Amino acid sequence: MRECAELIHGTPTRVVAGFYESLAGQDLSAGLGALRGLHVRVLAGDRDRVVSPRHPRELARALPRARLRVMAGCGHMLPMEAPDAVGAELAALCRGAVGLREG
């Protein structure tokens, strides 16, 4: 996490502001149709300051086979903050894709 913070703090303010503006205006909902028939994991951190908490909930609601997991104490960089939990979610998703039981 320190590396990410250093990268952001070392980036000129106008660049960071431009990034956030483009991220805030991004709407990828038109592409959700391709995922509707698939098992999906939606992972979010309860301390994410980049993505609004409503976005992962809306995403999970839009996908009938989605499973939402909000990770306590995590922000936006889940693979770095909770690598074991993210890995476990991906492993469970892969096991399900090949027809193996989870657990």
From TrEMBL:
Organism of derivation: Streptomonospora wellingtoniae
Protein origin, superkingdom: Bacteria
Sequence intervals crossing the membrane: none
Protein's name according to its UniProt entry: AB hydrolase-1 domain-containing protein
Short name of any one Pfam family annotated for the protein: Abhydrolase_6
Limits of the AB hydrolase-1 domain: 30-86
